[in-house]
Write a structure and sequence with these properties.
Blueprint (H helix, E strand, L loop, with lengths): L4 H8 L3 E10 L4 E4 L2 H8 L5 E10 L2 E5 L5 E3 L4 E4 L5 E4 L24 E5 L5 E3 L9 E10 L6 H5 L4 E3 L6 H16 L4 H22 L8 H6 L1 H12 L7 H8 L3 H12 L3 H19 L4 H7 L5 H12 L3 H7 L1 H23 L1
Parallel strand pairs: 1-8
Antiparallel strand pairs: 1-10, 2-7, 3-6, 3-10, 4-5, 4-7, 6-11, 8-9
């Protein structure tokens, strides 16, 4: 029962972070981003979903989904766009870029990351050769990629705009942003990896702050995690996903009634417990299929199915393709196959040489 469902999901859906831009702007300035899906093939082609984040290192600014009201951000604040919406960052609310070139936002392989950029009132970004001074606003901006398929309950539960305030309770967020800026300046060995891990930590903290600040009456998977009864049910299912759970067995474990658990779980999570478990099993199975050479039968048994046939039917019903087809479509599987072929060919050549 000590299982933490949020940590489980963060592990299972493979979050990846990267800090790409170190941005400065002296008022008036505006930076506009297209939907993240337009950038995904170039920025992180091996993930399903891309979101963007911006941390305020110095000064203040405004953030908004394109065409929506803006929220003000102060030094130390962080904003994420979990659903990858087109958005605007600016020195004043309501500003829009005069032109938008998505290709300009994609770093080339020759660029050393993060890119130091300067933005102006037109929205045009150019390489920053010097600082604009203490009056300029400075941002660190980046991307977070994650698996959206076959099942990521966290994504749907997040708001379109997620802001984390850098007050006293979140002072370490501001400190982490400062550390990211310092890491970008130093440019030491392994810096790209360090920055990527920092962005992942920032995302996790943003989600945690969001959960802590959720008002009563909210619904969604995160509300379920926080709910005393549904949270215990989720913990039980995540602790032993291969167990032959039924609603009766789960209610016996939690010492509650079937009606109460079914209604409360369905209201918050959007699925009854057994259907949620079926979807979660597919997420766990898909990760094993992608990341390991385990046979389909092994994966089936590991996630609670008694036969490969039963697992294949369930996987096709919930994911839309067979386990084998899913595995072949994953970049990691392709790389693993190439590696296996190289090792096999090398062994054969050594054998012939002997």
């Amino acid at each position: 029962m000590a299982t933490d469902p949020l940590s489980d999901v963060l592990r299972a859906v493979r979050f990846r972070g990267a800090v790409f831009y170190d941005v400065e702007g002296a008022a008036p300035w505006v930076a506009e981003a297209p939907p993240a899906a337009a950038l995904l093939p170039e920025v992180m082609p091996d993930v399903d979903h891309l979101m963007e984040f911006h941390g305020v290192l110095r000064g203040a600014c405004w953030a908004a989904r394109t065409g929506e009201p803006a929220v003000r951000l102060e030094e130390g604040d962080l904003v994420l766009f979990p659903h990858g919406d087109a958005h605007v960052m600016s020195s004043a609310p309501g500003l829009r870029a005069s032109r938008l070139d998505p290709a300009a936002l994609v770093p080339s392989r020759r660029d050393r990351l993060p890119l130091p950029l300067l933005v102006d009132a037109s929205g045009v970004a150019r390489p920053r050769l010097r600082s604009e001074g203490r009056d300029a606003t400075r941002l660190v901006c980046g991307f977070l990629g994650c698996d959206a398929r076959p099942y990521n309950p966290l994504l749907a539960a997040l708001p379109r705009v997620l802001a984390v305030r850098g007050g006293a309770s979140s002072a370490w967020v501001a400190s982490l942003l400062d550390s990211a800026a310092e890491e970008s300046r130093r440019g030491g060995p392994g810096g790209d990896v360090v920055l990527a891990r920092m962005s992942e930590v920032l995302f996790v903290e943003a989600v945690r702050r969001h959960v802590e600040g959720m008002p009563p009456g909210e619904t969604g998977w995160l509300a379920g995690v926080r709910d005393p009864l549904v949270g215990r049910a989720l913990a039980a299912l995540h602790a032993a996903p291969a167990e032959p759970w039924t609603l009766e067995r789960l209610t016996d474990t939690l010492k509650t009634s079937r009606t109460t658990l079914h209604e409360r779980f369905s209201e918050l999570v959007g699925l009854p417990p057994t259907q949620y478990l079926a979807h979660w099993r597919m997420q766990l199975a898909s990760r094993r299929l992608r990341d390991t050479p385990a046979k389909v039968l092994e994966v089936a048994l590991d996630v609670g199915y008694e036969s490969e046939a039963a697992f294949t039917r369930a996987f096709r019903r919930l994911v839309g393709v067979t386990p084998g087809a899913w595995r072949r479509a994953q970049p990691a599987a392709a790389a693993r196959t190439v590696g296996q072929e190289v090792r096999t060919r090398g062994a054969g050549e050594r054998g012939r040489g002997a």
